[in-house]
Design a protein that fits this description.
Blueprint (H helix, E strand, L loop, with lengths): L1 H15 L6 E6 L3 E6 L7 H6 L5 E4 L3 E4 L4 H19 L11 H19 L2 H13 L3 H20 L6 H13 L1 H12 L4 H12 L7 E2 L2 E2 L6 H22 L5 H61 L6 H11 L5 H4 L1 H16 L4 H15 L4 H11 L1 H22 L4 E3 L13 E3 L3 H26 L3 H7 L23 E2 L5 E2 L5
Antiparallel strand pairs: 1-2, 2-4, 3-4, 5-6, 7-8, 9-10
Amino acid sequence: MATDKNRATAAAILPLVGGAQNVTSIAHCMTRLRLSLADRSLVDDEALKALPAVMGVVEDDTYQIVLGPGTVARVTPEFEALVEEARSAEPTAAPEHVLTADELAAQGAEIRAARKAKNSTPFKLFLRRIANIFVPLIPALIGCGIIAGINGLLINLEWLPGITPALAAIASGFMALIAVFVGYNTAKEFGGTPILGGAVAAIIVFPGVANIEAFGQKLSPGQGGVLGALGAAVLATYIEKWCRRWVPEALDVLVTPTITVLLSGLVTIFGLMFLAGEVSTGIGTAANWLLDNTGAFAGLVLGGLFLPLVMLGLHQALIPIHTTLIEQQGFTVLLPILAMAGAGQVGCAIAVYKRLKHNKSIRTTIKSALPAGFLGVGEPLIYGVSLPLGRPFITACVGGAAGGAFIGFFSMIGEKVGSTAIGPSGWALFPLLDGNKGLGLTIAIYGGGLLVGYVVGFFATYFFGFSKQMLVDLNADVDAGESVVARGEAAPSAPTPVEGDDGKERQPAAV
């Protein structure tokens, strides 16, 4: 049974991350189980990577275990249940005092703080907060996007005319109120009362704002969109915190919510809606102008630089832009171009597989990670193959640039390709595709871009991804689970370890 399989996966992971007492918080995103750990040194990275269900591990502000879309949502509840069961089964007192849970947590907190300090710049922390606001919305965006695509297909085929209005309502309801959800998550992320953030953001989509004039023009329901909602909720959070400091406790329950909603609501109506509306319009205009006038070049740059942006954590800045474009135009024209980075990564991995015919370890990693790579989950290939090798990471970016240029070229000649939701990539993006010239042509252009990314990524890596010395050293007959270093064979130039974006030291390949 699937439940037994998911529970078995969770049971296999738990001891390898140090047991229940070492886990201080549990969460998950689209593909990763995210754990806060008291003591990072208790984790067995290699054993985790060897588990069949684990595609890779990433260390950032949390310890992230890549399980893939769908799987992570099923394994996480089982993992949480096992942690609770293990904690409840532990005796209330230990016969010997070795180290208390609080002491262990304190030590772990110090270790995490030291690691995070290396990589926690204010800008990156801000981007993480933005991502924390929008990432929880992705499942609804995907579900509604797919329903919208199905509905559009039925309308074009003139099938089930009695059902299509209902499907349109189902697909559009969430998008009509997305500002409320953004406001709720924003207040929660910035330390305010979530429902107050949602209440202030709801003003933006209230039909009655059409009777209000600001900056010499009538407001429109939805004006400012998700950016206005984000700004309104942040303002509400700061006003609420100010009120908590000055309002007497006996009056807090009445005065604080009233002042928070009133002041932030007035600023939203007579300032933020207009300003955020202008910014949102500018984003849509800029994206369309960029692809209409410099499509191939813009696609080349965006597709080629997306993997480095992901490595630096800067890709999170694009999430509000994608959401704004979807809200305005029904789809984001940027995501299909950025998805080409994954295609270049897949082509690169296949080339590595072909070139390193005798390295069973790397070939085993590629065989297990490629299916996820085709579906747009690139972390296993990035962290397990291309990035550690060095040169192949660059040639993977070349493949992404070529695929991006292909889609950008068609956008430049008027054939726009977009996605109705964010999150999926690779083949998983096909059900979410939309465009301005019909679904068939949109699918063909996106599929062509993937093919270009695969082919260019493959040939760029095959011919330029390895030096002669790398091929000699990496083509040794290495069994799965064993590496050249493990066998005591040093790299030719003994390069100095470099610190990656996640604070971990990596040994770059000789290039």
